[in-house]
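User: Fold this; C-alpha cells only.

Assistant: Input:
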Amino acid sequence: MSFPTPIFNFDRPLAIETVIQLVNLRPLQREKGANFKKELLAAIKHLLEVQPSFNVEELCRYMKLSHSTLYRKVQETFEKSPSRLIAFCKLQQAGIMLAERDELNITEIAYACGFSSSTYLARQFKKVHGITPRQFRKAGLSYTQFVRVIE
C-alpha cells in the first residue's frame, strides 16, 4: 500500500522562493480586508447623510451583500456586529456635531444622526463617554478627546 506524497517535506527546508511567495500573499489578504473596511465605512457615511435612521438590512442592500455575509465580514474586520458598528458610527457623528455645530440643539443632532430621541442619544453617549451631550457641550470639549478611531 502506498501513501500519498506529503505536501511539505519537514526533513528539508522550504525553498526561499516558496517562503517569499507565502509572505507576499499576506499583504494581499490584508489589502482585501482594507478595501472592505473602506467600502463599508463609506457606505455607512453615505447612508448617514441620506437616511440617518438606516438599519442593517438597508446597509446589506446598499453593499449588495446578504445579511450573513455582511455580519461575518464586519465581525472579522471590526470585531463587532453590524448593528453595533452602525450605532458606533452614529454616536461618533453625533459627537462631532455636538462639538462643531453650536447652532443645532441636541434633539436636532439626535435626529440628524438617526437616533429616535435626544434621550436615547444622551443614554448612549453617557454609556460610551461617561458624560451627557449637554455636559460635553458645556465643557466646550473637542470630540477628538473622546473619539475612538476605527479606521
